[in-house]
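Issue 218. Parser rejects a valid record. Input:
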Amino acid sequence: MPLEQLPLAGRTALVTGVSRRRGIGFAVARRLAELGAGLCIQHHRPHDVDQPWGGDDLDAVCAELRAVLAPGADFTDVAADLADPASVPMLIEAARGLGGRLELLVCNHAKSGDDGSILDMTPERLDAFWQVNTRSTLLLTAAFARTVGGDPDAAPRRPGERLGGRGPYPEPTARVFWMTSGQQLGPMRGEVAYATSKAALAGVTATVAAELLELGIVLNTINPGPVNTGYLDPETTDRPLGELQDHLAGTPFGRVGRPEDPAALIAWLATGGGWVVGQVLTSDGGFSLA
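Output the parser choked on:
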């Protein structure tokens, strides 16, 4: 496609959790790059190597993303542990340093593994999931919004007070995407800390979306359903697969998601779905309906 026809040409996307070519973050980053966006990606390989499915070759990850960049689009990658709040301004500055205008934030990163049932919960386990999956997403979103939308009034807001933006806006000034896990649609046994941290994002989506909208920024949260990024392969799974296979037999497509499935939804929302605001969107091929 000619450069002038690429809908994201001249724009920069910050995508977190891009460390494995089988991951959702990689599929999202690749699709946005194909649409013309420059990329700043975040990765934290030490998390992956501790999982049964293991890590990936980060040089290969970056090389494959560079290969699909449009002419003139920039790329950078940042190794950062999002459990550390200091990583947030570092990521925003890295994204701002690219040539395009920073307009997209995809908070795809997540801590998984080392979870358990309600009987296994400890303060340390709950805090670890909260710090990575919830706190860092909120802090990244806040830093992104201040960067691209400005802060019309720096004074702290009281309950019920509006941000006081500069609208109306002819189109969204920027877009933010969060990722959740469908924990409101059914139980996630043995993943209490993970489900809790993701449920917080789904639960606060409307509140944060309403505030960001005053700055022209559109926020939506994506529930991709089960997507096989390696954790559902029999040789690298971290869970029993029998019930899942039985459930899949009753679904219309007979499969779990592929990373390209949520990537396609995010790409559409990033380029033409500006009228969809503050939603928790389930894109699971009917998995939750079977």
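Fixed in the parser; the record now loads. The beta strands are 11-15, 38-43, 75-79, 101-107, 174-179, 217-223, 280-282.
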